[in-house]
Write a structure and sequence with these properties.
heterodimer; A: 321 residues; alpha/beta; Rossmann fold; 2 domains; seven-stranded mixed beta sheet; five-stranded mixed beta sheet; 12 helices; globular; disordered C terminus; B: 122 residues; three-stranded parallel beta sheet
Chain lengths: 321, 122
Amino acid sequence: MRKAFAESLLQAAEADPRVIFLTADLGYGTFDVFQAKFGSRYVNVGVAEAQLVCAAAGLALEGWRPVIYSIASFATGRPFEQIRVSLGYPGLPVVVVGAGGGYTYASSGVTHHSGEDLGLMSLVPNMTVVAPGDPHEITQLLPQLLKLKGPSYLRIGKYGEPAYQAEAKVILGHGRVLREGQEVALVCTGQIASTVVQAVDSLKAEGITPAVYQFHTVQPLDLSLLDSISERVHTIVVVEEHLPVGGLSAAVSAWRALRENGPRMVRLGPPHALVLGNPTVNEMRQRMGIDSAAISETCRRLCRSGNVRAPKGAAVSAIAT
Amino acid sequence: MFAAAHRLNRLLAIVDNNGLQAVGRNDALMGYTSLEEKFRAFGWAARTINGNSMSEIVAALSEVPFASDRPSAIIARTRAGFGVDFMEDQILWHYRTPSPEELQRALSKLGQTPLHKQPSHA
């Protein structure tokens, strides 16, 4: 996905001379073509995230369209105050890119894990928070983010996530259907979408057909799509590569809690804990219950259990797997 | 470091160096240090002036940039509340609002009239 981002960035810079790229000394090899082509619009501020944000704020005030880049945990955590005060408060058009969102950098340890970035960025009012799931979504979303008057956060993965063939348009602020289905709707954001789609596609052979919806835009969340989904399914399963606080499941829970009635909710994702012990990404996802096998098993349980629509006032439940 | 490395000679930093922090004095809390030396160590062209002297301020500003290949820094040594003897160099006045009587005393020390009492003020 980093490659898709680098290519989208290149196209954006070609289309708009105001686009300028700043990195906090990360992205080795990824932006060589960009740097060769747009040397003066590539700035490495060093491992200095506060400076990254403040320099971008200054540039934005001068009419530039900065895109700033670091690893997700560093891009959002260290300069949180600068993002809040220098981007959010004045409402400046800066795209903050966090690479390796979720647990992409599993083997680098807790410092590089990013189970909080979507939550942190959603805490800033007026911040648009986006987590695309495949290369196609990045190429569609970056230009839309660059048209915003205010700041945005773009969480990208690292590895080559496969494109999931889906026809629905990618529109900022709107969820998109990846797979039509019945009874159960899987709702996700970010790169875990491709695992969800993989699981659901493999269930077709068993006659199990849950729907899949990708909410690439976590803030503002497409509540009207959630409302329309809730007319058609008895259970929503939120799958996220993020802590239970501040991310997609928290936002969907808030929506659900304010409704008088609606579908039962299930969450698949990490517990509220740091991940120790140096597991690989695949081991992590297995432990967290967000690998393809766990997702499939959850769907089997929910679709075959003969669940009827939850009674009014049913509380949100989280199933630990 | 970034500013010096990129030879940003149109950048000027002015430090209002009154020696006070919110809960104590700089030197007592953070140890004596020369800000001018620190800026110079990071590759800036730095000077120290009396920040309460308009003529020194004007003179220094007229010589900016101090060097053609690096950013400039002016360490302006000041006394907080300069000119009002009962307020000068005291952390307390970061927090206290003067009473009407204190305000009058301060204004008379400075030889000033408040804006809203000046005849020409709209």
